[in-house]
Write a structure and sequence with these properties.
Elements: E1 7-8, E2 15-16, H1 40-73, E3 77-80, E4 83-88, E5 97-106, E6 109-117, H2 121-126, E7 130-132, H3 135-139, E8 144-148, H4 157-170, E9 175-178, E10 193-200, E11 205-208, E12 215-220, H5 223-242
Parallel strand pairs: 7-11, 8-9, 8-10, 10-12
Antiparallel strand pairs: 1-2, 3-4, 4-5, 5-6, 11-12
């Protein structure tokens, strides 16, 4: 007898054990998958977008290249009013200053020093204000220059007088400050002892006293503005003695 669960395979007579007559063998054939081609219009649009992105990248590269190249090639100085003005950073500071190499005549001898300004002299020239100081004040050198302000004022006043003090020192003029216990006034001035007074008032101006021509008052409406106006005073002083 033949087992019902056995099946004779024709051709070689071999038995395959354990295969039920109801079992079916399913064979799947491989299907070739093919991508659908995009429409020509869509392909063209993609190429245009890629080209646009490439052009934008190149344009940005050119802009940044020109910017950095101009920074590298920029001169650290400019010429103005017959002076060569250098942009410098002083030791211990983060901001730019403007340094002007200046030849000073002291007692018949010439000394090369730097006149330093906090602000660009081109901007100082643009300040519209009442500036009334004679050449006589700038060109005659006293034995002593005094700077003074109300002792009640804040310590920022010292910042306003600093560049004036440095410039006068370059000229060989001894400088004193009277602001701790009392304030000098124009009556204290003379040909040998000039006086510069600093005041916080309503509007910026630099005025030579009509009665006492060896006394000048520098006024501004804030401490910061006073520093700017003092810079303008130094710039004007330099121009007058160099003209």
């Amino acid at each position: 007898m033949t087992d019902k669960k056995s099946k004779i395979i024709k051709g070689n007579g071999a038995k395959v054990e354990g295969v039920n007559d109801k079992d079916k063998v399913v064979t799947k054939s491989a299907k070739h998958l093919t991508k659908k081609k995009k429409p020509k219009k869509e392909q063209k649009l993609e190429r245009q977008v890629i080209m646009l992105i490439f052009v934008m990248i190149m344009l940005l590269a050119v802009i940044f290249g020109v910017f950095f190249l101009s920074k590298m090639l920029a001169k650290p100085y400019f010429d103005y009013e017959g002076f060569r003005v250098w942009r410098v950073k002083l030791e211990g500071t983060d901001r730019l200053y403007y340094s002007i190499p200046t030849a000073f005549d002291i007692a018949g001898q010439e000394f090369q020093k730097n006149t330093v300004l906090r602000y660009d002299p081109r901007d100082l020239e643009k300040i519209n204000m009442n500036f009334s100081v004679s050449d006589q004040f700038f060109k005659t050198r006293p034995k002593q220059l005094w700077m003074s302000w109300d002792p009640k004022e804040k310590a920022q006043m010292y910042e306003a007088e600093l560049e004036i003090k440095n410039f006068a020192s370059n000229l060989g003029i001894p400088v004193g400050v009277a602001a701790t216990e009392y304030m000098l006034n124009c009556e204290n001035s003379s040909a040998e002892k000039k006086v510069i007074l600093f005041k916080i008032l309503d509007a910026p101006r630099i005025m030579e006293n009509e009665t006492y021509p060896n006394c000048v008052t520098i006024e501004a409406n804030s401490y910061n503005e006073l520093i700017i106006i003092s810079d303008k005073f130094v710039w004007e002083w330099l121009r007058r003695i160099s003209g």
